[in-house]
Automatic annotation (TrEMBL):
GO terms for cellular component: cytoplasm. Residues 2-204 form the Deoxynucleoside kinase domain. CDD domains: dNK (cd01673). Substrate binds at E30, Y42, Q53, R77, D82, E148. It comes from Limosilactobacillus secaliphilus. Keywords: ATP-binding, Kinase, Nucleotide-binding, Transferase. This is Deoxyguanosine kinase. The keyword Transferase applies. It holds the Pfam family dNK. Gene3D superfamilies: P-loop containing nucleotide triphosphate hydrolases. InterPro entries: DCK/DGK, Deoxyribonucleoside_kinase, DNK_dom, P-loop_NTPase. Belongs to the DCK/DGK family.
Amino acid sequence: MIVLAGTIGAGKTSLTKRLANHLGTKAFYESVDDNPILPLFYKDPQKYGFLLQIYFLNRRLQEIKDSFSNDLNVLDRSIFEDSLLFKLNADMGRATETESDIYDSLLHNMMEELPDQRHQKAPNLMIHIQISFDTMLKRIKKRGRPYEQLDADPSLYDYYKQLNERYQKWYEDYDESPKMSINGDRYDFVEDPQASREVLAQIDRKLESLGLK
Ligand SMILES: Nc1ncnc2c1ncn2[C@@H]1O[C@H](COP(=O)(O)OP(=O)(O)OP(=O)(O)O)[C@@H](O)[C@H]1O
């Protein structure tokens, strides 16, 4: 499977749709607007941080299992990014070190490959969409999910800034599968059809180099 990665508002969902369409495969989305824990988490991160992670972990593993049938199926978010978000939350005092350690050990245990399994759980390719902090703020505002807005909670500014900064290092350290990065500032694949074609061509070249296409 191919997984998309990137910060809030990077365009993972949009690129998932375009890429699956282009490859003629199935797209798997995590519905954000139907997530019952997310608004609770934004209201009280300390109380709901751990529950939210377990909710996501469960959903993302389900997606991985559901998408096994084709190596080119596309998932709108990687399971590995959640750990980055949770660590940030732990560092901001919204989760304890014990919760963070237990989460990491559970993730590791769930993702461990078994000797004779027919399909690997790790993705075949991870595509990171990189955007600047400025673009991230603009996208969050434009999309307008109420609980994500800075007007409602100015302390989110620091959260978003740190999150954006940590993504670059996360991408550099990521070694669960082959990977590539898309410049989401330069290529506005949502609004600009030419940029969209260029991004899909970049991904095609990578898939070809991996023997997946
Ligand atoms: N592991 C996590 N811990 C805390 N919050 C999370 C986690 N994963 C997602 N979220 C929250 O869920 C919401 C949706 O984030 P996500 O990046 O998955 O989708 P998105 O913003 O719609 O992405 P895109 O615009 O790239 O499609 C955001 O408010 C984000 O902060």
